[in-house]
Design brief:
2 copies of one chain form a homodimer. The first copy, chain A, is built from 11 helices and 17 strands. Chain A has about 325 residues and is an alpha/beta fold. Chain A starts with a strand and ends with a helix.
Chain lengths: ~325, ~325
């Protein structure tokens, strides 16, 4: 059997963003219900030029398929006019082990499923009334996070923080973000003072947001720190938070901003709730407008499984 | 950039077996010299139908590429006329993370690189004079092990052990093994009495070869046990062995027949030599004809890297 080959242009053309959000929400619920088997994470790191490769794999029990996802990040690529991110997804039969389809999405689906997770976090955790959306970071993921928030909030005002004025300008000019009224800033204060829904989506290796700046009634989604060494939040922020949510408790014990806070004994893992349990109504999410909530996501294979399945279904020959 | 797609038929047509053995030997040496970076192993297991999926990845330092290899084994496949093994290899740029080539070898290259490792073990560890080759197992790998031994020994007499007379008959009739004079047997004794080069290549989950049966001057290559639960050798055999060799000390501590012997404190890892160190002449191999030697291989990504590179080089457009 020859696997079906699916290229990025077909994927982009056929992807339904709202459907992706719905299916990934279902995926988080399946995970928290114990219906998902995940392979141990595997990765490679490169020094010259700096890069990494992450391999995630898993399946839904009693399903027809399993999925392996490869995502690469080579951070000097933009200097030679290539995107940093790349990758592909492989869909196999859970009955025979045969390769069914290769989704040569070049990292696009990883970007989308990550943005969808940000929307889901906001849907369940952000205050009802969003005054202004704060985006920390100017890259592809920082752009997609804003794009996907339109499905879960009516707020169309956003402030974007970055270190590079040129990148900020480019961000504000993105045609696919034209629904939003976008301001840019070099001062983090402007974000923390004006925004009660903040998303961090950078490759930072040290904290960008600090405890004292976070006002009551703020929700933060931290997306960028997905491996040891990467960091976006001052671990002390978690002490101030009323609600701490992760995509996977198992992964957060080792990766992401939560891992720092747990290692420094600022919080214990028992204070952390999985988003799937909130979706399933087994655990409360935000219960009042003054709470501080944090969703720290490192990305899990169930997102890849769900998006690969929906893409394959829509393009199956 | 669109990756080059390479299918099994092209791979089979272009593969040079002797070159593969040479390159994998070089690969083992590179590994023992510390020139190879390996990703943590990842795998998935399936219950109904029974199957597994192994993901291996790695790269040679300062090389142009890195490789991810996926191998699946679904052991009920033959009942629906499909091969048990399947898989593919992915070749990426170590400079940009881009996917360069997809080798849709359907598991063929994993079979070949494993057979090549068996030939390398025999080259360095078997007695000079091979009286008869003993093959334990009747599957594809048991066949390929014999096929590849022709490159490292002049012996053309073989006895094959299996449980199923029909499978034994099929084995003996394989046209690509016609250089060999093949006898078959249902009695393991015949193997251990007559053969001083024995290869185990089964999916057994309990010991097939026992300490008391192993005569002085025997070399055993154990290939089949590559994950927890699989076993081919009575752990006590390792106590009797003069030379114990692995493809990777790190992996043998956890997987394969050696892991049982180490866990039961029959031997310690310090008694185990890496094949790469023997190839590099840093450690002795067999020093006399009466020694008992064992090579217990679980398969490492450097083999996949080397075979993927040579296939890509020969088929590069």
């Amino acid at each position: 059997m020859k696997p079906q080959l699916i290229y990025k242009n077909e994927i982009v053309k056929n992807l339904k963003e709202k459907t992706v959000i719905k299916l990934i929400e279902e995926g988080f619920a399946l995970l928290s219900r114990g219906e998902v088997v995940l392979a141990p994470l595997s990765s490679l790191n490169f020094l010259k030029p700096p890069g990494d490769c992450h391999i995630k794999a898993g399946y839904i029990k009693h399903d027809d398929v399993f999925v392996i996802k490869v995502a690469t990040g080579f951070y000097d690529n933009p200097t030679i006019n290539l995107p940093s991110g790349n990758g592909l997804m492989l869909l196999f039969s859970q009955k025979t082990g045969e390769l069914i389809a290769i989704l040569m999405d070049e990292g696009y689906l990883t970007d989308i499923r990550t943005a969808a997770a940000g929307a889901i976090a906001a849907k369940y955790l952000a205050p009802k009334k969003i005054s202004c959306i704060g985006i920390i970071g100017t890259g592809t993921q920082a752009q997609l996070q804003l794009k996907f928030l339109k499905y879960v909030t009516d707020c169309r005002d956003a402030i974007v923080w970055g270190r590079d004025p040129l990148k900020l300008e480019k961000y504000a000019e993105q045609s696919y973000l034209k629904d939003f009224n976008i301001q840019t800033t070099l001062n983090m204060d402007e974000i923390t003072r004006s925004c009660n829904l903040i998303v961090t989506a950078t490759v930072s290796r040290s904290a960008l947001l600090f405890e004292k700046e976070i006002l009551p009634g703020t929700h933060i989604t931290a997306i960028g720190a997905d491996e040891p060494g990467k960091q976006e939040l001052d671990p002390a922020i978690f002490r101030k938070a009323d609600i701490i949510v992760t995509d996977s408790k198992k992964q957060s014990a080792k990766y992401g901003d939560l891992a720092y806070a747990i290692a420094q004994k600022i919080i214990s893992l028992s204070k952390v709730t999985e988003i799937g349990d909130i979706i399933l109504n087994k655990k409360p999410g935000r219960t009042n407008e003054q709470q501080i909530s944090i969703a720290d996501f490192t990305g899990i294979a169930i997102q890849d499984i769900q998006i690969a399945k929906t893409v394959f279904k829509s393009l199956k020959k």
